[in-house]
Structure formats: structure tokens, C-alpha cells
User: Fold these one by one.
Assistant:
Number 1:
Amino acid sequence: MNRVDYLAGVSPKSAAKHRLITLRLIGETWLLFAGLAMLANYLGPRAAESWSLLGGYGLILLGQGLLLQRIYIVAHEAAHKKIVPYHLRLNDTLGQAVLLPILVPLQIYRKIHSFHHGFNRKDHHTSALDVFVSPWPVTPFIRGVCYLLWFLGVFAGGWFLHSLASIVIFLCLPTGQAQKISPAFKNWQPCDRLIAWGQFLAGLAFHAMIAWLFGWPGWLFTLGLPLLSFAWVWSLLVYIFHYQTTIGAQVRFNVRAIEGNRFFTWLLMNFNEHATHHMYPNIPWYELPLKRQDLPRPFDKHNQDVHSIWQAIWNQLGGPNRGLCG
């Protein structure tokens, strides 16, 4: 058995509550996924018949992308070992099951995300997505290339496509080479690689099974196009909680919380309480609003300059950090 700190010594009643919340979370997420897939397979093939059907399918496709974002955050709880904290194997099985549609191995997700928590914006060279480090003098051309890469990454789904390509590369590279590219893979063991390969192949098998059961059009409207929608949504949202926040050694404070309306707090599973999550990553998602923590000064003054998710997305039009390192 593997137990994390926040459930150590809790009452049986609290543990039972956690199990019920977890079952409801996974159950409602998969039901919504199946329901949207059915609507997409009905409207998608008919979308060319009229503008109203095309608009309706567009909304369904956006809904599928948003729901896959929620699935990603469900898996985030599993990466922190909080879905089933008293049984790591079951926790990882459920976490990987929800990740199958987006082809992400939980083993790699956990490894990279652990590095993010431990070294978040430690300096300009470490875990700071909005800082482009150039080995050449930062000429107007180099700056222009950095801005182009940033806009493609954030607003054209590039960050997710880059992440997916990186997963494949890290699966194939020798461990020593992977560690040179990303320090997140320090202490990456052969058993980690085998588990990650199995998880990635399980995702490919899930996609192949959908194609076999429902044909090419069924796969396209159930997984193919929704994955592109998710790539756009994920890339828009992935760095809004850290974009141009403080950089320094106190890594758990280089973050911001964002006010959320009822829909987005449900969709993001209170992920907008990101400052609290970074300060106390063992708090389960449903307790984050109740245990909200303010950032200490001066982090609060500098980082809490964004109030809504829309403003956080919009601010990213400012481009990468202007203090590019040569």
C-alpha cells in the first residue's frame, strides 16, 4: 500500500467521502465524453448540409476539446497520487485509463510534472516556458523567431504538439541523452521506460480499437478532431498560471491564482486555485477553495495581476519574456 500525507490518519468517514468523490468524478467525465462523442458522430457527418449544423458541430467539437482538458486535470490528480492515495497501482491504472484518448503516458506526465513543481521558474534557464534562451546575440531576427514560436505554441496548439512529439522522442532516446535534453529525466530508470512504453502503446491501442469498432469516421469524430481541439485548448491554458510571474529560488511562489466562474472552476477542477496547489500539492482538488492560501509579499503583488481566465489568455499576446537571455 502507498499512502500520501494528506490521508494519513484521516477518519474512515473522510476516506469514504474521498472514494465517492473520485468515483463520481471519473464516472461523470467518461459519461460526458461518451455523450459528446455520440453527438459529434451524429452532427459531424451532416455538418456540411447547413450552416446551423456546422455551427452546432463546431460547438460540440469545442466541448470535446474542453472535456479532454478536464480529463488531463483528472490525470493530474493521479500524477500526484491523489485519485486513490491508499493504493498506488489502482491510482495509476485509473489515471492512465483517463489519459488514453490523449496518448500521454502517466509515467512521463508524473516525471515532468514533478520537475515542474520542484524547479518552477527557478531561473531563466529552468522550467520557464515563456523565456527563450538564445545561444546567439538577440538580434531583431532572433527576437522575431522567438515571438513566432511563442504565438504558434500558445495560439495554434503548438505546445501540445511539441509535448506529444517530445514524449515519443524521450521514449526512444537512451536515458543519458534524454537527461541532457531535459533534466526532468534525471534518475529515469529502465523500468520507468518500460512502464511508459506500455502506457503509450495502450493509448495507441485505444485509438485503434475505436477505429476498428466504429470505422474511420467514428474515430475521426470521437478522437481525431477532438484531439486537435484539445491541443488548441491545452496550449492556450497550459501556462496562464505562470506566464511572466516571478523568477527565483522560491519556486512554489512563482505562480498565480485566477478567479474562476462556476463553469471554469468545474471544468478545471479548481485548478484556478493554482497558488494554493503549488504551495500544498497534496491537497485534493475539491478542497482547494476551502484551503485557499494567499501568496506572501512581494509575490502576491507581482503575480496576482490577472483576475479572469480570459484576461490570462489575452495577456499571452504580450509574447515571451522580454528579458531574453543571450
Note: Residues 190-237 form the longest helix (48 residues).
Number 2:
Amino acid sequence: MNNLYHLQDSTATKHTVSFPPLLTEEELRRKTSFAPIVQKQMTLIEEAEAFVVIHPDWWGGPPAILKGWLDRVFRPETAYSMPEDGHGRNPLGLLSGRKAFTFILRDGPENPSLRNFWNEGIWGFCGAIGHCHEFNHIYETEATMRRKILEQAAQAAVEFLLSTSKASS
């Protein structure tokens, strides 16, 4: 389990306590990173049997730290590959057969584009079967109701991850 705000970079100063989200020019050029914190995360992705992501909707997308983590960790030959197929380059998802459950918390109404970002743009592109569970107007609910909603969501995640279903929603 990762909390991106509490990962310690062994090569950084003792004051660095979160995942550094900036994709460097060198990483972009090489299509990978040799930073130990990124290498560790890439290994965890390769070894994972399933994924659960929980995040708030920040201006229609995931928080910058999570987007930076995706940019640095979901790289070619870790989450996908781009083999030549004779007709161009079509992605080959390296996370095939794995499931991914994404919880999205938001202040306002439903945002289908964020669900599409995860199910198609991330999980689908990388070969995983994605499902999003959205909590709309979550901050307007009382604490007791939020706990009940989160318990129901946790149960939904368990049911999805243990099912044999192939559908995304």
C-alpha cells in the first residue's frame, strides 16, 4: 500500500517525505527512471495482482502528485509496451489480467471524463480491467453517512476484485 505523501526517497534530504512527481527531461528521453524511489514503485506495479486508487477530484483530474506518479511509474516496459506491428504502433498492456478499482471523491456532480481517464486512458491502455466508484457531493454529507458510504464502497471494491467480470464501468 502506498500513500504518495508519505513515501521516503532514500536519496533525498531528510525533509523530502513525498513522492517527487516531476517527470524529468532525462526520464522522458530515456523512457524510464533510475531514481530508487521510482524503480521501487515500478517493481511494485510489475508485481501487483490488483490495484486500488483513492483520490479527490482536483479540477477534473487526479492530484498533481498522483498524476506525476503515473507519469514516472507507468512507463514503457513496466505498464505497457509499444511494439511495431507492421501497421504502426499499437500499445500492448502489460497489466493484463489484473483488476483496478478507483475511488474518486468530489465536491460536485459526476464527472464522466475522469472515469474515462482511469478506465480507458490508464487501466485500459495498460491492459487492466478498471472500475470507478464515484462519491459525488461527498463533502456535503455528514461524517456518519460518509463512513457508511465508504464501507459500502470498500465492499464494492472487494466484490469487484474477487469477481471474474471483465466489464469496465
Note: The domain at 25-162 is CATH 3.40.50.360 (Rossmann fold).
